[in-house]
Design brief:
With 256 residues, the chain is α+β, with helices and mostly antiparallel strands. Helix 1 runs antiparallel to helix 2 and helix 3 packs antiparallel against helix 4. The radius of gyration is 17 Å and the shape is globular. A hairpin with a 2-residue loop joins strand 13 and strand 14. It has 4 helices and 14 strands. The chain has a 5-stranded antiparallel sheet. Strands 1-3-4 form a 3-stranded antiparallel sheet. The protein has one domain: Creatinase/methionine aminopeptidase superfamily (Creatine Amidinohydrolase, Alpha-Beta Complex), CATH 3.90.230.10. Helices cover 27% and strands 25% of the residues. It binds 2-amino-4-trifluoromethylsulfanyl-butyric acid and cobalt (II) ion. The site of cobalt (II) ion has 6 residues, from strand 6.
């Protein structure tokens, strides 16, 4: 169901706390020389030790607990012993944790050592896209209000929006209706309902918007080879506003 019951919301909130804490844990591991495989294994252990589960593992044959996407990889990077982080990389860590059958989904793009100012701007603007997206959206609006604000902010900063991938409703399944596009008209998409939980996830390219799929059938990269950033939170809409369920405690808490 698109609208969640109070019991469901309580479980989604718990899943989101585990997701957020797993991201904070992942951030602490990011350094030059570590493989994305080792980061993933540690994320998996963290989630299990926290009483959660890892629904990505086995999802349509996906082999890992998390998706870890470096530089020109947009999303769905498969953790690998051969992918070793180096100074100047950006690394997007995308985690879904579930708790008693309900999911939380969030992504952060982290820096490895010193990154260029241009890349810093890309990561900053991608995060800002998320907050611009929720700033004016409320129950009764179309999802397009979020989509339009994301596209506007990305493009006005000279970046481009990936079209082939989008955010989604979330609950018992990690991907539920409605779709949450990162581009489009304010009047597009489903109407936002009370007690709806959705994952909003701008994927923003420094260069052109076009993508390519690697032969592993998962890894999505930029066609032009330029970097891409990703920022995602699970949010809850109520008549009081929007609650971001996967924010770090030291980050701004957003609710109206
Ligand atoms: N976490 C991704 C999302 O944001 C989906 C993960 S795909 C999987 O929607 F195969 F890893 F599960
Ligand atoms: Co998602």
């Amino acid at each position: 169901m698109i609208q969640k019951t109070p019991q469901e919301i309580a479980l989604i909130k718990k899943a989101c706390e585990i997701t957020r804490d797993a991201l904070i844990h992942a951030k602490s591991l990011i350094r030059e020389g570590i493989s994305t495989f080792d980061i993933d294994k540690s994320i998996e252990k963290f989630i299990i030790d926290s009483g959660g589960q890892t629904p990505c593992k086995g999802y349509m044959g996906y082999p890992s607990a998390s998706c870890i996407s470096v530089n020109n990889t947009i999303v769905h990077g498969i953790p690998s012993k051969d992918i070793i982080l180096k100074n100047g990389d950006i690394v997007s860590v995308d985690i879904v944790a579930s708790y008693k059958g309900y999911c939380g989904d969030a992504t952060r793009t982290y820096f490895v050592g010193e990154v260029s100012d241009e890349v810093k701007k890309l990561v900053r603007v991608t995060k800002e896209c998320f907050f611009k997206g929720i700033e004016n959206a409320r129950v009764g609006d179309h999802i397009g209000k979020i989509s339009h604000a994301i596209q506007q902010h990305a493009e006005s900063n000279g970046f481009s929006v990936v079209r082939e991938l989008c955010g989604h409703g979330i609950g018992k399944k990690m991907h539920e209706p409605p779709e949450v596009l990162n581009y489009g008209k304010e009047t597009g998409g489903a109407v936002i309902k009370e007690n709806m939980t959705i994952a909003i996830e701008p994927m923003i390219n420094m260069g052109k918007k076009e993508i390519a799929l690697l032969p592993d059938d998962w890894t999505v990269v930029t066609r032009d080879g330029k970097p891409s950033a990703h920022y995602e939170n699970t949010v809850l809409f109520t008549t009081r506003g929007v609650e971001v369920l996967t924010l770090e405690s030291d980050d701004e808490y957003y609710s109206r």
